[in-house]
Amino acid sequence: MFGLTGAAISLVAIAASVVAAIVVVWAIASRYKVSDPDEAFVVSGSKSKTQVPIRKADGTVAYETRPVPSKVVLGGGGVFVVPFTQRYNKVSLETRQIAWRVQDSPSNQNILVNLEGVANVKIGGDEASVRAAIERFNVNPLNIEAFVQQNIEGDMRAIVGTMSVEDINSDRETLKDRVMRVTGEACSEWGLVLEGLNIQSVTTPSGYIQDLGRSQAAIARRDAEIAEAEARRESEQKRAEAEQQIAEANRTLALRMAEIQQDTDTAEANAKAAGPIAEAQRNVEIYEQERLAEAKRAEVTEMRLESEVRKPADAGAYAMKIEAEAAREAAISKAKGAAEATRQAGESEAAANQARGLSDAAVFEARGKAEAAADEARGSAAARVVEAQGLAEASSVKAKGEAEATAIAAKGKAEAEGIEAKKAAYEDMPQVGVLEIALDGMPAIVGEMGRAMASIDSLTVVSTEGASAVTRQAANLFTETEEVMTSVTGFGISDLIKGAVGGAAAGRAAVEAHDTSRGAVDPDLPGVTHA
Predict the structure, then answer these.
(1) Domain shared by 86 and 166, yes or no
(2) pTM for the complete prediction?
(3) What is the pLDDT of residue 100?
(4) Do 50 and 113 reside in the same domain of the chain?
(5) Which residue intervals define the domain Band in the entry (predicted)?
(6) d(CA 399, CA 402)
(7) Which helix (H) or strand (E) holds 50?
(8) Three-class SS of residue 2?
(9) Residue by residue, what is the 3-state secondary structure of 88-116?
């Protein structure tokens, strides 16, 4: 029924062979295992040899080759796992982080310390480490984690007990190195590698570290505040120094600019003043030459005044004095002769009076000559002084002052000598002096009387004599004035004039009246009294 031909049978056989071959190939391929770089295979059911580390009594490690019932394929390798007779397990070679914690571990100060951290652990990458780890931990990560935590805690407690809390907290690097060295040796025996250890926190249940922190914080805060204040002080000091340097630089610049400006102004002023200064110097030289010239002219003027004014004045005064003495002597001799003749000849009193009148006339004549000579000398001196002043004023002010001083001195000296000459004449002829003073004062007296009459705006005369009463009243004023002078001096003006020009009888009466009131009569010189 189902008869097959030979060709069909052959085709089926070929297909079956192909399928079988494919199945075989698939089966073989599926049993060939290749590990990742971070894992290893442990093939059980196949015998192999391996190097087993053996620790000797002296502490050294020796390796011995021993047959093992499993095979280890490291990362990146491949292996054919025989079906039904062999089995393989994967072992991770990657690093894993294991958190650890140590609670209430006493320090060498018996202060409980809590520590927390993380350890970096992995299975060694060699065949022996993989075999040791898989034998001890059965490729269970929890077993590896518990082992590492227990070893770190034990070693950490042992090492913490030898250190102070301050060292544990501050020198964590030393603590970490010591723990890694001890725990790392234990891990290596179990096929593990302790790659790193981090201490994340160190605390004390009693708050010891916090207290240290507070004190240190206070110290740090104090130091920080001090440092901040010091930095602020240094900053302010630097700023003040900088401002001071800036101010000094500005002051130096201002002073330099002021010096430059002063030099510039001085140069400009000197340039502007060069001409006036030179002109002033020339003027000074001119004034100096003029002063010398004026001094020479003053000397010449002094010499001229000496020769033309002073000496002639001295000569005139001396001549007047000699003439006055001669006239006086002549008058005295004449008077004595007349008196002697009167006494001897028994002449009458009229003759004696006439002699005295002649004597007074001679005195008046001598006085007149003396006054005329003195006036002439004064006039000549004044004219020459004016001439000298004019010459001096035409020069400089200084020379003018010197010339004026010289002229005034010469004039004063000449006037003084003239007054001295008049004084000598008045001593010899006192009546002449008195008469001159009285006559010199009369114009002023009459002027004041006339001014008093002139100030009257209107005048009403109550008299039976009519307007002639006014004239008579004015004449009475002169009469009353003479009476006042007579009461004060002892004789009136009319008496003096009559004695000088009216004759011997009137002169004798005036002189005798004066002698009676003022002094005795000189027996040798009638008409001359001694005060």
Answers:
(1) no
(2) 0.37
(3) 93
(4) no
(5) 49-216
(6) 5
(7) strand 39-55
(8) coil
(9) EEEEECCCEEEEEEEEEEECCCCCEEEEE
What integer pLDDT is reported at residue 105 of this predicted model? 92
- The Cα angle at residue 311 between residues 307 and 317, in degrees rounded to 5: 155
CA angle centred on 107, ends 101 and 110, rounded to 5° = 120
The whole-number average pLDDT for the span 197-201 is 92
Decide if 61 contacts 53 (C-beta within 8 A).
Answer: yes
Please tell me the distance from the alpha carbon of residue 184 to that of residue 127, in angstroms, as a whole number: 18
Q: Which amino acid is at 93?
A: L
Q: Which of 13, 38, 21 is nearest to 90 (CA)?
A: 38
Q: How many domains in the chain?
A: 3
Instruction: Report pLDDT digits (tens) over 152-168.
Output: 999 999 999 999 999 99
Of the residues 206, 233, 254, the one at which a domain ends: 206
**Average model confidence (pLDDT) across the chain:** 72
Question: How far apart are alpha carbons 432 and 500 in whole angstroms?
Answer: 9
Structural domain boundaries, residue 86: 28-90
> Residue 59 region, left (φ>0) first, then alpha (ψ -120 to 50), else beta?
left
Residue 178: pLDDT band (50, 70, 90) is very high
Q: Which of 37, 58, 90 is at the close of a domain?
A: 90
Q: Are 324 and 428 in contact (CB under 8 A)?
A: yes
Q: Is the dihedral of CA 394, 399, 400, 405 positive or negative?
A: negative
Residue 114 main-chain phi, psi, to 5 deg: -110, 135
Helix (H) or strand (E) holding 121: strand 112-123
The CB density around residue 113, as the number of other CB atoms within 10 Å, is 27
Name the pLDDT band for 341 (thresholds 50, 70, 90).
low
Q: What is the pLDDT of residues 484-499, one digit of tens each?
A: 666 656 666 666 666 5
d(CA 462, CA 475): 18
